[in-house]
């Protein structure tokens, strides 16, 4: 059968061609399909179910912290986009422009939102009047468009899904706290739910968001040593608010400008999951977001009682786990490969002998460890094994990141590491964008972040030798 | 305080100016805000929470029936839109066109999706090969754009949120069953969750979806007697599939074209909720989708123990109901008006005397009926009262619809009813679009649907006197 053949075909090993390995996985695990629209993808059911799980976890966390969901228009009038100078400079070159509605040319062009600060500010200007109206803690789940030249599934696409939180506060202090709080939500989500270790830090001025005073980021390291910016949180001060004339009566009955943040995480994190946990057998999914957590495979399913037992276990487990039975007539070997490709964390095998003994077999996807489990203790065993998966893949990723993180004391050292060792480089920096430019030019690396956890490696900038301001991570990035 | 003043201000009575009453509610219940983009609205937290509840209920039902969520691009290349002749004729005049990406003019214009049949077909052509790939039962939650000239919040906007299901089947029979099944899901959701009585039927050829063979609809009647199309389900036969060269190997190993459906419900249903249940005190929300089902109002809250009791009740109830305490320093009278405006189904009052007696007061929003409830029986009482609300508002809407539905035997009768009595008119029809045109011209009514539950009113068409084919509902519509 065509389907069978397609799926047992091996994927390109990552050591051979990492980019092709990635592409093979997104296609063969049926996460996405290319569409007829350049740079826009079809997210297929299995891929979208991962995003739905990500969304549900984050959405619950946002709401627990008092955030509310809203919906803003998908279009931004050109004049609105232009209100904040740095912002328009950053985004105007990469937006899609709507110029006609039906057969009529529009008086003013509309861009398809690349991000929605301007729309939120336009709304906030109408609804914020008093300190009693603050804070405003809004979030929106939507897709946005950036006219990227080169695109890759999930990692960089013309249209992508994300959430964007946009908040307004009485004081700068409160807004700064919100910026950090939401970065911590992302970091905690990545580490505990996605099992992706991240470095928290601040972006340099060169790398920060257009219009922001400060951008905080979480950076993860992929299999190939490249960094992936996994989530960002921005502090705007009152710059946008002033540009949009947002003003409120403060507690002293005086007009005041509020302080603003925004923060976002996107479908790009699915690319991060693939490139952190995947292996040469396919996807490896963290249990918290796996569409199927346990796949039940009946062994010798034609024998009496096997399928019934499989269905019975499914019905028993489905209240606690995302579980499915594959009762198709494919061979067990085919099914093993299929669900390894799809990254299902646990495989549950049940055959006639197991039934006799009142047991089943649980096999972990990431290390293929096998345990025999008495059926009466199945729920506890699955919970424990899913936790083993989470810890196991986290540890693996953390060890890899540590073994691929280097320290450079001077430019020659940094250049040599960058040329020969994929990974991240820690080095001191003076804070001058000229040195950033030079490192990019000479060693091909960009600044990833100035981590909150600083180490004092030396007193001087790795590039110019002047007094250093901050230890900074450098590397190649997605 | 400015806020207080704004909210206790009465709204325009619906008898005086129905359109203004509607606008007052959407604004004063804080469902939406007008945006700077013509015809596009900001859906504020309270309005969006209603949509999230609608989405969650429908999404669960779709998934129980085997549907899977996906994401298609938001853009459609012009050539793709043109593949199905009737479809492009129907939609091309009302789409937004993207002509530039960044500073470059595109080689081919892209429209912002007005609906996604073409995108789904384009994908299906790539992934459907064998009868084993069928049925495909996909759904997507997104927003779409139609360049409407005149817009009204929720009822008709340039951008609106909806879900669109798109399915492919081996046989026409299966696809027809799906079309009906999904119409029934919508009807059941409207009647049981939203408490909106609906008429199920088929659209005439003139009113059907561009490109469909048959469109089924559910029609609801609003306070002012106008009809609202609340959800539609379309059967496409194999028309689109042929236009898009979708073909599969059937069970006899022969190439065959699959059969298709699509079905959608949108944020317009929020307009339907407002105009079915709302009254001159504001919104009335059906409990299933109300963001707050029970608002707890502490009475004499400065007295010792009152606030604590209110919080205790909230914490006790919050696992079972969507519940909130208003502990602000506004007066009880202000709070009563506020939550009536917001349509909260039940108000729970608790004061010092109630606490002494171990009771509280529950007041139903829609009829202001008051019951005293012993605190030990509170959960049961709330469940029972929410069910009373649901039944009560459903019955009220049904009685109104029945009292505003008329029968016409000839054109003069129909015209007179249409001129003098807002509502729906049942009349026999020959099936000729010319008669539809004439009724529109003469009496200002359009065909709403040919209901599945037919009545034989007479043998001849109300318009031309030729033999009748179907009893049809006629009326003015949103």
Automatic annotation (TrEMBL), chains A, B:
SUPFAM superfamilies under this entry? C-terminal domain of ProRS, Class II aaRS ABD-related, Class II aaRS and biotin synthetases
What sequence ranges are listed for the domain Aminoacyl-transfer RNA synthetases class-II family profile? 45-286
Any one GO biological process:
prolyl-tRNA aminoacylation
Give me the Gene Ontology terms describing cellular component.
aminoacyl-tRNA synthetase multienzyme complex; cytoplasm
Please give the subunit comment from the record.
Homodimer.
- Family membership noted in the UniProt record: Belongs to the class-II aminoacyl-tRNA synthetase family. ProS type 3 subfamily.
Q: What is this protein called?
A: Proline--tRNA ligase
- Taxonomic classification, please? Bacteria, Bacillati, Bacillota, Clostridia, Eubacteriales
